[in-house]
């Protein structure tokens, strides 16, 4: 499986695309104005403790207090009290009105290992499945791990030498020592550790043996990545290339069209079917439809084929859009039990490629598939879009017919209250004016109200709004 990483770095925005076998599967977008907080470590001050919610709110010096679930506070934090200083790490960016979510279980990630300062065990990534390699890495971890800290060996460590792992762990241990010293002398709230930027995280989190090429369009970022690899993994330097052409890097690599379709509600399937993806505050719902596909055999086989193709695309879309939380999938109803089992197994197989932890909970009594997927970064919807000023986020506005009826109702009420002048100008959106101008409609309304009415089309007016003005002429 060949992978290509494409990165576009600007002062205002950093973007990274991961392409597997020619298909876009992951996209990361970060903007300097909104900031990326996940991974940052703060010395915070407890502002409020809510026993009923098993939660505490921590001042970290930002606009919003951070949220700490008491179940995520380890023994080192002790019993939380207002005014207490506490070391916390951001595990989920702020979203909407909610502040960032935190934990006291600090983790410092490197290329080959993750250091856990408040733990004392060792572990190996579950993605390393070879038993002999797992045993070898666990032995190396026990050998190079400093006393008094915990350590997890990352997937990228598969095949690494003792020297490479020891060098990474030494760097992380020195980083923790510096961070702990800074925590002692800094008054809360204070930022103690800022996670590295996207260009460096590409090396730390994404660059593995399957990656054949890393292309970066920013000279400074390219240089920093090469400097880091020279220290950590010199053999990988040959994979990194600087993109120096005037054409946009995503256009050049043929994925700009995919990015333009990234957040569309409907996703077409090759067979002619399609997905409908609706994200809400509480959960994400994905509906599978046959669309134009009618098949050429039996109905059950047609449905099975669409659902199988949909399962692969759903796994890709969850990863590509970084959809987290609760996900409900409404596959087309399948009569055969073996078809249901095959679709679920295929979905699970495709989701195993995802770096983000997820779980398929199975079918509900209504035939819906329940999935949970860990949330982390700020979602693309909130980064790239703002609430529609027309519909206020509903996704719908009143129809022109409804607005026209509202105008008639308003006029009748005002006439009954004797609050209407004899000559009136009604300003409204062109579609509303068209309805009120239908043959005989305006004359009938004038006779009913005993008023002279003039209609004015206002293209710039909000489709749900209208004005009723006194005509002085």
From TrEMBL:
UniProt keyword RNA-binding, yes or no: yes
GO MF annotation: an example: metal ion binding
Keywords, sorted A to Z: Cytoplasm, Endonuclease, Hydrolase, Magnesium, Metal-binding, Nuclease, RNA-binding
Cofactor(s) required for function per UniProt: Mg(2+)
Keyword set includes Cytoplasm: yes
Cellular-component GO terms for this entry: cytoplasm
One Pfam family recorded for the sequence: RNase_E_G_Thio
InterPro entries with a match to the protein in the record: NA-bd_OB-fold, RNA-bd_AU-1/RNase_E/G, RNase_E/G, RNase_E_G_thioredoxin-like
The name this protein goes by in its record: Ribonuclease, Rne/Rng family
Source organism per UniProt: Thermosinus carboxydivorans Nor1
């Amino acid at each position: 499986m060949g992978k290509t990483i494409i990165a576009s770095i600007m002062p205002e925005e950093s973007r990274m695309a991961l392409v597997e076998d020619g298909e876009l599967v992951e996209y990361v977008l970060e903007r300097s104005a909104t900031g990326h907080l996940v991974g940052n470590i703060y010395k915070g001050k407890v502002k409020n403790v809510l026993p009923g919610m098993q939660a505490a709110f921590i001042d970290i010096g930002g606009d919003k207090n951070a949220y700490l679930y008491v179940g995520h506070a380890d023994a080192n934090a002790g019993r939380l009290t207002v005014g207490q200083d506490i070391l916390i790490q951001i595990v989920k960016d702020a979203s909407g009105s909610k502040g960032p979510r935190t934990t006291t279980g600090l983790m410092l990630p490197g290329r080959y290992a993750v250091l856990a300062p408040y733990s004392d065990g060792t572990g190996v990534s579950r993605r390393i499945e070879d038993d002999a390699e797992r045993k070898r890495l666990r032995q190396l971890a026990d050998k190079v791990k400093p006393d008094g800290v915990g350590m997890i060996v990352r997937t990228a460590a598969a095949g690494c030498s003792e020297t490479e792992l020891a060098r990474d762990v030494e760097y992380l241990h020195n980083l923790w020592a510096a961070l702990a010293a800074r925590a002692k002398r800094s008054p809360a709230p204070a930022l103690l550790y800022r996670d590295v930027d996207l260009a460096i995280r590409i090396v730390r989190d994404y660059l593995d043996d399957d990656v054949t090429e890393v292309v970066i369009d920013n000279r400074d970022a390219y240089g920093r990545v090469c400097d880091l690899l020279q220290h950590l993994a010199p053999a990988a330097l040959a994979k990194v290339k600087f993109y120096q052409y005037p054409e946009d890097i995503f256009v050049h690599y043929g994925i700009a069209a995919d990015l333009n379709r990234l957040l569309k509600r409907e996703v077409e399937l090759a067979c002619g079917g399609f997905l409908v993806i609706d994200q809400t505050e509480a959960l994400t719902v994905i509906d599978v439809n046959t669309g134009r596909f009618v098949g050429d055999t039996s109905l059950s086989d047609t449905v099975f084929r669409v659902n199988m193709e949909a399962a692969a695309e759903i796994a890709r879309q969850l990863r590509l859009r970084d959809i987290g939380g609760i996900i409900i999938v409404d596959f087309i109803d399948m009569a055969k039990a073996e078809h249901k089992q095959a679709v679920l197994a295929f979905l699970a197989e495709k989701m195993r490629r995802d770096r983000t932890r997820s779980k398929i909970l199975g079918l509900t009594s209504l035939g819906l598939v329940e999935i949970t997927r860990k949330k982390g970064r700020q979602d693309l919807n909130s980064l790239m879009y703002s609430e529609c000023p027309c519909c206020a986020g509903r996704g719908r506005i009143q129809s022109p017919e409804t607005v026209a009826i509202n105008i008639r109702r308003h006029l009748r009420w005002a006439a009954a209250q004797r609050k209407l002048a004899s000559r009136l100008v009604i300003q409204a959106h062109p579609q509303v004016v068209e309805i009120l101008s239908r043959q005989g409609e305006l004359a009938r309304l004038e006779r009913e109200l005993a008023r002279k009415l003039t209609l004015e089309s206002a293209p710039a007016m909000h489709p749900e709004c209208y004005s009723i003005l006194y005509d002085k002429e």
